[in-house]
């Protein structure tokens, strides 16, 4: 395992979605919440599940499984909402579980291999190999973009 | 000098002075021979010059200086006021405003004003080749300050009582240096020192005037303290820019000899009521100062009424206070629902009491955020002047009710729509003088801008005595533009036709002018006002005039709603758009052109099934015999919103859905309910076509 202390590295939150692990830089994460009541908002795209009351702030919720067109699963005990802040938006992502906070050395990040070929491809900014784990780094702007 | 500390104060005061300049210039234009007005303008300009020079804004100071020279020449009757001169002076004021705005937004206030400066110079020299001497002292408008203070019986009592308790009563005269700038700041510092060591009984001129810098260089204060006269003098001399301090003991024997005159000319205000014991509750001996005749004419309430004690609070703090209060409102909702569930006597009582206190608190917080519409209105006189020049029309603007107060959030939004409507009235409404004469109207057109409160709303009206709306022309245009069909037009009322001009893609002016745009405007006005929860209506009679009325809610952040339930989902419908609720039978529902309608008090009202609009998932389709209907309105049109059940009325805090979810159909926002869940607010305007 590489020694991260000496080199430049980014701290990321690692979460699980279906059988893969994804990562978001900690700087964009406001917090991780347990699943709570989501109020449905009518006439929006299917992956917007609705809004929650996050300590007085009405926050929209996106189900990442549906966003990436992965098979829909029932919400479990481990299901979490990761609150993301990007520019002037705050959005919660529903994920299967939030696993870890780790440092990824900058040189461990590689561009997206072209073979993946699923819908989620366009939302990926790169992959990182840390030990035996393969982490997929999300391109947040693209994940949140098309809803305008 | 610590510049940054004063920058904010400087910007605020500069704006005030410039506003005063514009107002007085408009006055002057009406009565060019009134030299007292020139004096007023001169004073404002002079103060501005001094302040900007100290703050290091040379361009600003320089231009003000040039302008001041011209004003001085006018004041000394070396130059006569002509419209041309006023134009140049107006232009200078415009430049000055731009500079101040630039400084306020962090710039250095530099601006190329050479042509204006040259014009000012030409005026100054052209008519009279005399170099105007620099005038240091400002014109004294206030009545000469008396050398000694006079005391009424109440103040005499305070003084004698305090001396019995071992206090000394002094009369202190403070003289500021001639070149003192930011006099108000010095006054404030002096008072701060005084109030630390004792109590100020009285000041001359009054504290309000001192704060407004309405005094020359010297002021007097009556003061009780335990400190010695010498110490006080030394302390006060430490305030910079103070030239002279004289502390003398008040001669109490003189009291008995001097009869108390109830009608004093000197403005008197108790600054800080002396000792609690000696302060009878009715004691607010505020005698309104008699303003000099000239300023009484320019009474457009530029100065707040004397006698109100105010402090300036950063608006951000008020916003924070409001946010915290909103949190409380949500918790109150929660407590109320808990107490209904638990049904415990004492709990119920406490919750009820708390609700009442919070109601009062809410009123106070909301009124704290109120700002007079004057802050929006005061830019219009100048705009009208400019417009009437550009369009060659004669227009008189009357402003009524500028003191009407509105929430700051509404104030911020209402400016542009009003500018648009006024431009519209001036451009399309008021005819040119020849046409007016032909119609037998006075050449000068009148635009009335009126604001007033009524119920929970504020109304703003823009009324002109111009051409009014030409029904045929509007209809022809609307049909040509495809806004309505010919068939529809037959059934339209006058009011509906008038309101067509608010539809998008509409411009009836034969010649498109740059004043009121290309018809993209009025529909934007309508949208803005509706987004503020208000609405706009038009009354018009051809050749007599038109009236645009805008109805606005007093506040935007807390509203009353009716909560309704559809399946398991709760929605909030703003009470302001609800006419009434009713329960109807299935058999009463009729069909008309694929639209379900009901007969509601003789009117055919279309039904909107919220369940369908909001695509509420339902486990099983049920056919109920009775339907709960909320009748809502948008302008004159009605619609019945069908829901499962009514929950009740509640005050809620309006929250936005954030920047990610925008333009959700028929949802105007969200709120947090007592149980902590989010409920969506129905936008009735979107549901009625």
TrEMBL record, chain A:
GO terms for biological process: chemotaxis; signal transduction. PROSITE patterns: CHEW. GO terms for cellular component: cytosol. Pfam families: CheW. This is Chemotaxis protein CheW. Gene3D superfamilies: CheA-289, Domain 4 (2.40.50.180), SH3 Domains (2.30.30.40). Residues 9-148 form the CheW-like domain. It comes from Lysinibacillus macroides.
UniProtKB/TrEMBL annotation, chain B:
It catalyses: ATP + protein L-histidine = ADP + protein N-phospho-L-histidine. Residues 558-689 form the CheW-like domain. Residues 347-556 form the Histidine kinase domain. Keywords: ATP-binding, Chemotaxis, Kinase, Nucleotide-binding, Phosphoprotein, Transferase, Two-component regulatory system. Signal peptide: none annotated. One of its GO terms (cellular component) is cytoplasm. It is an enzyme of class 2 (transferase). Residues 1-103 form the HPt domain. Residues 284-296 have a biased composition (Low complexity). Its EC number is 2.7.13.3. One of its GO terms (molecular function) is ATP binding. Gene3D superfamilies: Histidine kinase CheA-like, homodimeric domain (1.10.287.560), Histidine kinase CheA-like, P2 response regulator-binding domain (3.30.70.1110), Histidine kinase-like ATPase, C-terminal domain (3.30.565.10), HPT domain (1.20.120.160), SH3 Domains (2.30.30.40). The modification Phosphohistidine is found at residue 46. Residues 279-305 are annotated as: Disordered. One of its GO terms (biological process) is chemotaxis. PANTHER family: CHEMOTAXIS PROTEIN CHEA (PTHR43395:SF1), SENSOR HISTIDINE KINASE CHEA (PTHR43395). This is Chemotaxis protein CheA.
């Amino acid at each position: 395992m590489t020694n991260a202390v000496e080199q430049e590295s980014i701290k990321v939150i690692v979460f699980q979605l279906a059988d893969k692990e994804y990562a978001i830089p900690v700087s964009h994460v406001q917090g991780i919440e347990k699943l709570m009541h989501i109020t449905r908002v009518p006439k929006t795209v299917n992956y917007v599940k609705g809004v929650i009351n996050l300590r007085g702030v009405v926050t929209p919720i996106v189900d990442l499984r549906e966003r990436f067109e992965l098979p829909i699963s029932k919400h479990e005990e481990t299901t979490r909402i990761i609150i993301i802040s990007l520019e002037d938006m705050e959005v919660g992502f529903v994920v299967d579980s939030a696993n870890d906070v780790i440092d990824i050395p900058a040189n461990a990040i590689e561009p997206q291999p072209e073979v993946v070929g699923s819908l989620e491809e366009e939302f990926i900014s790169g992959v990182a190999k840390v030990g035996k784990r393969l982490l997929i780094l999300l391109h947040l702007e693209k994940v949140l973009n098309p809803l305008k | 000098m610590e510049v940054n500390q004063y920058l904010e104060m400087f910007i605020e005061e500069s704006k005030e002075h410039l506003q005063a300049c514009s107002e007085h210039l408009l006055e002057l234009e009406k009565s060019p021979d009134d030299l007292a007005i020139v004096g007023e303008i001169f004073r404002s300009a002079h103060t501005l010059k001094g302040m900007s020079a100290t703050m290091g804004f040379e361009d600003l100071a320089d231009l003000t200086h040039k302008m001041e020279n011209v004003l001085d020449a006018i004041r000394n009757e070396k130059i006569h006021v002509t419209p041309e001169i006023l134009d140049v002076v107006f232009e200078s004021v415009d430049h000055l405003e731009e500079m101040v705005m630039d400084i306020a937004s962090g710039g250095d206030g530099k601006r190329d004003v050479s042509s204006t400066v040259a014009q000012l110079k030409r005026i100054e020299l052209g008519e009279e080749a005399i170099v105007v001497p620099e005038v240091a002292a400002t014109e004294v408008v206030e009545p000469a300050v008396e050398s000694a203070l006079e005391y009424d019986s109440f103040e005499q009592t305070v003084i004698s009582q305090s001396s019995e308790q071992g206090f000394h009563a002094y009369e202190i005269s403070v003289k500021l240096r001639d070149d003192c700038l930011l006099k108000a700041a010095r006054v404030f510092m002096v008072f701060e020192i005084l109030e630390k060591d004792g109590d100020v009984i009285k000041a001359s001129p009054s504290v309000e005037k001192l704060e407004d810098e309405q005094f020359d260089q010297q002021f007097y204060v009556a003061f009780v303290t335990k400190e010695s006269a010498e110490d006080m003098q030394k302390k006060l001399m430490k305030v910079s820019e103070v030239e002279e301090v004289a502390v003398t003991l008040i001669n109490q024997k003189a009291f008995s000899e001097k009869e108390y005159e109830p009608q004093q000319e000197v403005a008197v205000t108790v600054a800080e009521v002396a000792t609690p014991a000696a302060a009878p509750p009715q004691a607010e001996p505020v005698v309104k100062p008699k303003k000099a005749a000239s300023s009484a004419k320019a009474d457009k309430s530029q100065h707040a009424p004397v006698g109100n004690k105010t402090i300036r609070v950063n608006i951000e703090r008020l916003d924070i206070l409001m946010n915290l209060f909103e949190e409380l409102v949500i918790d109150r909702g929660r407590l109320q629902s808990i107490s209904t569930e638990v049904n415990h006597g004492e709990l119920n009582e406490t919750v009820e009491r708390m609700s009442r206190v919070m109601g009062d608190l809410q009123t106070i917080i909301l009124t704290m955020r109120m700002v007079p519409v004057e802050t929006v209105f005061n830019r219009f006189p100048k705009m009208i002047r400019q417009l009437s020049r550009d369009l060659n029309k004669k227009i008189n603007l009357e402003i009524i009710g500028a003191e009407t107060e509105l929430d700051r959030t509404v104030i911020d939004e209402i400016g542009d729509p009003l500018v648009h409507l006024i431009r519209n009235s001036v451009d399309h409404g008021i005819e040119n003088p020849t046409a007016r004469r032909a119609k037998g109207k006075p050449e000068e057109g009148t635009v009335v801008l009126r604001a007033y409160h009524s119920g929970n709303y504020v109304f703003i009206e823009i009324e002109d005595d111009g051409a009014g709306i030409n029904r045929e022309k509007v209809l022809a245009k609307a049909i040509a533009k495809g806004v309505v069909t010919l068939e529809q037009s037959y059934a339209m009322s006058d009011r509906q036709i008038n309101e067509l001009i608010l539809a998008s893609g509409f411009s009836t002016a034969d010649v498109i002018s740059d004043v009121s745009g290309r018809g993209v405007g009025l529909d934007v006005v309508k949208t803005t006002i509706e987004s503020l929860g208000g609405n706009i209506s038009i009354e018009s009679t051809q050749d007599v005039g038109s009236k645009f009325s805008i109805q606005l809610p007093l506040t935007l952040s807390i509203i009353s709603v009716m909560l309704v339930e559809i399946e398991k989902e709760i929605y909030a419908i703003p009470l302001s758009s609800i006419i009434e609720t009713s329960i109807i039978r299935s058999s009463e529902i009729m069909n008309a052109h694929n639209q379900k309608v009901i007969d509601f008090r003789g009117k055919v009202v279309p039904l909107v099934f919220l369940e369908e609009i909001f695509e509420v998932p339902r486990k099983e389709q049920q056919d109920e015999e009775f339907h709960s209907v909320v009748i809502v309105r948008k302008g004159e049109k009605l619609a019945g919103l069908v829901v499962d059940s009514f929950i009740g009325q509640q005050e809620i805090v309006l929250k936005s859905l954030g920047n990610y979810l925008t333009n959700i159909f028929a949802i105007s926002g969200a709120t947090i309910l007592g149980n902590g869940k989010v409920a969506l607010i129905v936008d009735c305007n979107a549901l009625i076509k």
